[in-house]
Design goal:
Elements lengths: L5 H18 L9 H21 L6 H9 L2 H4 L3 H6 L8 H24 L2 H6 L7 H25 L5 H4 L3 H24 L3 H7 L1 H35 L6 H15 L4 H13 L9 H4 L7 H7 L2 H9 L8 H7 L20 H16 L10 H11 L6 H13 L30
Helix pairs in contact: 1-6, 1-8, 2-3, 3-6, 3-10, 6-8, 8-10, 10-11, 13-14, 13-19, 13-21, 14-18, 17-18, 18-19, 19-20
Length: about 425
């Protein structure tokens, strides 16, 4: 929330006022401090540890409060941990926002849970009926968070209104649902003869699973940062193809999904498409930026970039078969490609996907030396070369995917450049091997 617009500040203030209104019945409500204080302290610890080490929010304690306490009392549970977490959340406006949002969500969950008789079911350990009010409370909790988050996206992040709330609720249901089950287990044990200490034991496996999940996302973020740095380096070095790598990754994903590949393999194909030209970092910049045709010797140097790329990413284990795509994306089915002249199915499947995606984006992007071809023209050229240069199965998959999805290529080089055109595409295929 840096440089927050005035309208977003007003929105945060209104949400904070609503949260305060939820607390107004407190003077007339018996407050079981024996439950509120431990839950608030426990949530403060979780908030501090989770935010500082992993990011995100840990909801089981909040939902346990919603299942155990009256609504205005439950709304107190998140306030100390968030408002006093200066080190984890140094910006006061962000702390106020998160405190108000969490308080409203817990209040709504507690209202729904109490209205459906959930607290009696928890005290009596009435299963499976206890799952019904708990599930409804979790749904209310998710709904409030989604509605409020969508408002922030629309007002503070300037996301279009028609997209601000899209997908927020469905994405939150599964993870918060798991937190709700843990919160319900805490509430049942809290009210059981075993008492609060037994309830705390629920957090141990939940904490371990959260740590594993957070580690996965941190590792994934590190992967993305590595790839982003490599792509930016290529874009800086070869200004003629700026943005090309990202679009090849996008087209590779479209082909992979059309072929019915699983999500893990689709992600590998995305990496392969994004990094297919990383070997250009090993090619002299003067050749990549040369105006006019390349000499045979210069072309041979540029044709080494798949091998350079493969060497660069050899030690990056998470890329998997994407490394083979980087090495072989310029091979052709008839054996006339490079670097090894592989034929047909000798070429790895991932490389055949990237080859089609690479050629398609090259043809549909405006470069300094030629205008972009229309998508139908590019697809016709791919189909003409299918069987000799490209795998017909990959070409067909891309064609089918594009019938359902728009393709909006962008200019990848300065159209107003006064430089002379570089080498034109070779006649045996839709693009030059650069």
């Amino acid at each position: 929330m840096d440089a927050v617009p005035a309208r977003a500040r007003v929105y945060v203030a209104l949400v904070a006022v609503l949260a305060v209104l939820c607390l107004l019945p407190l003077p007339d409500t018996p407050v079981p401090w024996g439950a509120v204080a431990p839950l608030a302290a426990l949530y403060a610890v979780c908030e501090h540890v989770v935010l500082r080490r992993f990011g995100g929010t840990f909801y089981p304690v909040l939902l346990a409060g919603a299942f155990l306490l009256p609504p205005p009392v439950a709304a107190l549970v998140p306030l100390p941990g968030i408002l006093l977490a200066g080190a984890a959340q140094p910006r006061p406006l962000r702390r106020i926002w998160r405190a108000a949002q969490s308080s409203l969500a817990v209040w709504a969950a507690a209202q729904v849970h109490e209205g459906l008789g959930g607290r009696d079911a928890v005290v009596g350990s009435d299963f499976p009926y206890a799952l019904v009010p708990a599930g409804a409370a979790v749904l209310a909790f998710c709904l409030v968070l989604a509605v409020l988050d969508g408002g922030v996206l629309a007002l503070a992040e300037t996301v279009p209104v028609r997209r601000a709330w899209r997908g927020l609720l469905p994405r939150s249901l599964a993870p918060i649902g798991a937190h709700g089950l843990a919160g319900l287990m805490m509430a049942v044990l809290w009210r059981s003869p075993y008492g609060p200490v037994a309830a705390l034991l629920v957090l141990l496996p939940m904490g371990v699973s959260w740590w594993v999940f957070a580690q996965y996302h941190r590792e994934r973020a590190a992967h993305q940062a590595t790839i982003r740095a490599l792509v930016q380096a290529v874009d800086i070095k070869d200004r003629y193809t700026r943005g090309h790598s990202e679009r090849v990754g996008q087209a590779s994903v479209m082909i992979a999904r059309e072929l019915g590949m699983d999500d893990e393999r689709v992600e590998v194909l995305r990496f392969a498409g994004i990094l297919h030209d990383v070997g250009k970092l090993g090619v002299p910049t003067r050749l990549l930026r040369k105006d006019g045709p390349l000499t045979p010797e210069e072309r041979r140097v540029i044709e080494l970039h798949p091998e350079y790329g493969h060497e660069m990413v050899r030690g990056i284990s998470f890329l998997g078969e994407a490394r083979a795509a980087i090495l072989h994306h310029h091979e052709r089915l008839d054996g006339s490609g490079y670097p090894y002249g592989l034929v047909g199915t000798q070429i790895p499947e991932c490389a055949r996907v990237v080859a089609v995606a690479d050629a398609f984006d090259a043809m549909t992007s405006t470069r300094s030396y030629r205008r972009a071809r229309p998508v139908p023209t590019a697809l016709a050229e791919l189909e003409r070369c299918a069987g000799a240069q490209f795998d017909p199965r990959m070409v067909g998959a891309l064609t089918r995917a594009l019938r359902r999805h728009d393709w909006r290529p962008t200019v990848t080089a300065d159209e107003t450049s006064s430089a002379n055109p570089r080498a034109t595409p070779v006649s045996t295929g839709p693009r030059a091997p650069r």
